[in-house]
Amino acid sequence: MLRSSLDFDLARTAAAVGMVRIVAAAAQFALAFAIARALGAEVSGIYYLAFSVASIGAVFASLGVGRATMRFVATSAAERDWRSLAGVHRQGALVTGIASAAVAGVVAMLAPLLAEGIFDKPDVEPVIRLAALLIPAQTLLTLYSSVLKAVNRPISATALQAVGPPLALAVILLASGTDSATVTMAIAISSTGGFLVLEIIQWNRTIGKPARQWGQFDLSLLIRTALPLMVVSSMSLVITWSDVVTIGVFGTSEDVGIYTPAARTALLISLGLTAIAAVVQPRLAVLYRSGDYKGLEQLMRNTSLLGTIVGLPALVVIETAASWFMSLFGAGFDAGATALRILAIGQFLNVAVGATGLLLSMSGQERYLQRTMVVGALANIILNVVLIPILGINGAAIATAVSLGGVNLANLAW
């Protein structure tokens, strides 16, 4: 009876997190719409290039410490070892704070080289220089989201990290009437910093007095645990941003501005799988630990089928009305209709295969997942470099769809 109650509570929480993730995806789409309507294709492309530099910097600045801190905070909280909990929290925040500040300084200094030497777009330099300030805010926002999840606050953690900042930026951007990439970046920094403060407040309210202790934890253990975890994060980042960065190198700012909303729109197809994955995640771990491989296979099959049923209508609508969807972003954005169709097919194949990466991570196969992510990231880079000079943003869409599909099929083969 107790186990059934716990399973119900776990499923209910997972379902709630899944709904918050759907809202987060919708917030990202709303932000892409707001940026496109406010800035236009060319200026929004400048913003997205600078934002991609900041996002890449934030992942490398995190050093994988967020995931490692989450693991040790969860263990310490379960054992009520408040000294260790306070210590690992303090050291995680200190390491990521120092590392992110250092990376931000490097990015600010390299802004001229990145803008003129790599992107060949001098107008991007001041926005990149300002975007350097976003790196510490993003890094610490991710860290505090992780530790909140570790102490059973997944809903507030997801809302404060993934819903609040993009939604706030979208609302402020439309209300301000600005058409400047620099002002938009300043708003992004302010909204991210504001929600970071809210996360810290939530952390202190959740933990109470132990959160204010100095605590003690083995820093070398934290670093040794964190660095391998950075591999998957880095490779996922490559697949997420290499298309935008490569378009920035070989194409125009307008190309970047048109492609990014297309990519955000295609992600709507995977909303169903996002919610389903949140619900089945704890069940996958239970089935694997109990050795019920037949049940595991059936659950994955059902997940794939349900995701396909939910994603297929969205695919049909997008394939049929791609030009109309892109025209919603403003004049000239319908040039991304073909890229949207390609990306939508890639996302649908991802949904049809199912949550294979989640299965591997929940069943102790992180090393295999790391290998497939590395190969997928390298393939993504190569395909982008080869296809974008020939096919433009459609080449980027093909590269993303193929590499994403390849990773999922490789995971499925396991």
Protein described:
With 414 residues, the chain is an all-alpha fold. It contains 16 helices and no strands. The chain has helices at 2-62, 65-78, 82-118, 125-131, 134-150, 154-176, 181-207, 219-250, 253-266, 271-289, 293-320, 322-327, 337-353, 356-362, 366-391, 393-413.
Which geometry do the CA atoms define? Answer: globular
Which residues form runs of ≥5 with pLDDT under 50? 1-6
Q: Give the biggest beta sheet.
A: none
How many strand elements? 0
Overall pLDDT:
84
Q: Over the alpha carbons, how many angstroms does the gyration radius reach?
A: 21 Å
Class per helix and strand makeup: mainly alpha
Query: Helical amount among residues, as a percent range?
Result: over 70%
Measured distance between first and last alpha carbons: 35 Å
H/E series: HHHHHHHHHHHHHHHH
Strand content: under 5%
Count of separate DSSP helical elements = 16
Please render the helix and strand layout as text.
Layout: H1 2-62, H2 65-78, H3 82-118, H4 125-131, H5 134-150, H6 154-176, H7 181-207, H8 219-250, H9 253-266, H10 271-289, H11 293-320, H12 322-327, H13 337-353, H14 356-362, H15 366-391, H16 393-413
